[in-house]
Amino acid sequence: xxxxxxxxxxxxxxxxxxxxxxxxxxxxxxxxxxxxxxxxxxxxxxxxxxxxxxxxxxxxxxxxxxxxxxxxxxxxxxxxxxxxxxxxxxxxxxxxxxxxxxxxxxxxxxxxxxxxxxxxxxxxxxxxxxxxxxxxxxxxxxxxxxxxxxxxxxxxxxxxxxxxxxxxxxxxxxxxxxxxxxxxxxxxxxxxxxxxxxxxxxxxxxxxxxxxxxxxxxxxxxxxxxxxxxxxxxxxxxxxx
Length: 241
Ligand SMILES: [Zn+2]
Fold this sequence. Notes:
Blueprint: E1 12-15, E2 22-25, H1 30-41, H2 45-59, H3 70-85, E3 88-100, E4 103-112, H4 113-116, E5 117-120, E6 127-129, E7 134-138, H5 143-150, H6 158-169, E8 170-175, E9 178-181, H7 187-192, H8 196-207, E10 211-219, E11 226-231, H9 234-237
Antiparallel strand pairs: 1-2, 3-4, 5-10, 6-7, 7-8, 8-9, 10-11
Helix pairs in contact: 1-2, 2-5, 6-8
This protein binds zinc ion (ZN).
Zinc ion binds at residues 95, 97-98, 105, 220, 222-223, 225.
């Protein structure tokens, strides 16, 4: 039996900004392109994001796929966008200052991906120290957590959002350095029992996470004023197809 003469896979090394690990990725295939087109046509934003998660995972070469933090995932996505579709992007942007016929003035602008992608990388421990003898250990915020728990709760009060996320991510409690794993059905009770000072520390942990985001700066051709827009949902702004 002979093997099919398929196009050899081009590999690109990517050093992740947060974990500092190096992974290898390949461009998306036509089959994956079709999956993404289907995902984009869905009315449910979650379908689109889940398709993105699957495609990025497919494009990471190797058997043991690393668990990527949200920042590392976003960075990998942008590199995948670069090798699959190119290093520039054309985006329709709305001016924040002027309107034409009651609608915000909008225009298409070309941007270089490496110019618009910004990173704020912090080394945040998975352990949140509450008192000298009590600490919480949280799982990393992954893209999976982001699409399943963060996006659906975005409309909620930020404190509520962090409370719900803390329940989801709680992994263990450290009491006098003894690591006690917490079962799924016990997580809510642990978080519910925190006082406000402790919850402030949890909230600080969420705010201090590393981020990879896009920053668009342009001068409106209509009113000549400067605009600046920050976007965090990179797959939504930089399509792969
Ligand atoms: Zn304008």
